[in-house]
Amino acid sequence: MGIMDRIDTDKLKTAVDLRDLAAQHTTLRAWAVGELAGPCPKCGGTDRFHVKADWGYCNQCWPSDKGTSHDAIAFVQWLDGCDFREACEKLGGDLPATTATRRQPEKKSKACHGDDWQVEAKDSVTQAVAVLDTDEGKPGRDYLEGRGIHRDTWEAFGLGYDPAKWHSGWERKAGAVVMPWVIGDKYTAIKYRFPEAKDKPDRFRAKGGGEQSLFGTRLIGAHRDSLILCEGELNAMSLWQALRDLGRGDVDVVSFGSESGVGDPAKKLATKYRRVIVWADKAGIARDAAHAMGAHGVKSPRGQDANDLLQAGVLAEFMARTLQRLGTDTAKPWGAVTLILPGDTTLGLPVKNWHRLRSGEVKATYTRHELEAALLVGRTL
Q1: What is the DSSP letter of 373?
Q2: Residue 186: CA atoms inside 13 Å, Cβ hemisphere, count?
Q3: Of the residues 150, 174, 206, the one at which a domain ends
């Protein structure tokens, strides 16, 4: 009986966690939910090598095969220069599939939970936010405006710009839009979007030691009515902006990150809402996540994600139809509202349109965006 007659390759690949295997040959750190990155065990670099439990690739010397990443068997073949059969043997494929076990990775605290990481993250984001509004930050503003993102949106999400951010793949500095991931009062990750990047693997980098679990939680409201979970920061900002233009402050938007699927943090958040919508590019991810959470699944129409629809000027209309189809009442947009506030109010006041009444109370007229910013972000207008 030959080795191929004794090996169940599907069970072999399932039994081997490629992250554990790769960690024996290089130093890895968290990159995204379930995904690690680090120097390539063959060609080096800083974070060009990426790996999950069942796939891996190197941006430089071991790229994905026509969009499909490599499994554990392919990893051993690539690293050791052996053939398929020898790779299976090295992975324990000569043993009965039912006895194959994988080593459980040691749980380590993420660097982002430490005080030093938090201080460094806060300082870098604060500086980046200040730069975005200067002449030096114009490339960042041009990029965001080109993607249809408005100033009040990028300010609400706390975006910034670093004109000289190190890009490990290019091994040089370049301008990058800074996208902080925040839960509560803690930074969990910082993503960097390099506008000049043309190839998808070069577009993003992240601060080491972070944990990309949820993006946009700083803007969720207290209503807990409807939640949209989507892929990517730009999609989350696009949806938030379009929904506010519709006057739908009862709908929160949070990104769960990459195309790998909806993780436990997003599923936990979803339990707090009356209605949940999962929007993903791939129908399978939207369907599976929606089924697991009892949510509604939405697949990107004709391959166009939320930011594509925003740039085309049709996202608000698409969302209005989607919410109506799912049984929510579409609220009418409003342009301004006048409030009578206590004289000692701590709510940020629009500087041009308020006055104090004889009673000591303050009469203030807000535009929709001003009121949302004052309530959700807490900045003084």
Answers
A1: I
A2: 15
A3: 206
* pLDDT for position 378: 37
Q: Range of 247's domain?
A: 217-325
d(CA 340, CA 336): 14
The per-residue pLDDT for 1 is 40
Burial class (CB in 10 A: 0-12, 13-18, 19+), 64: middle
| 256 and 175 both lie in a single domain | no
Residue with tokens 């990517």: 232
Q: Is residue 330 part of a domain?
A: no
98/148 Cα distance (integer angstroms): 53
Q: Give, in degrees to the nearest 5, the angle at Cα 79 between 76 and 80.
A: 75
> How do residues 170-227 score in pLDDT, each as one tens digit?
989 999 999 999 998 899 999 999 999 988 889 999 998 888 889 999 898 777 789 9
- Residue 31 C-beta-side C-alpha neighbours within 13 Å: 20
Q: Quote the CA–CA distance of 118 and 132 in Å, as a whole number.
A: 21
Residue 331 resides in a domain: no
Domain end, chosen from 206, 229, 256, is at 206
In this structure, are 224 and 319 located in the same domain?
yes
Q: pLDDT tens for residues 240-249?
A: 999 999 999 8
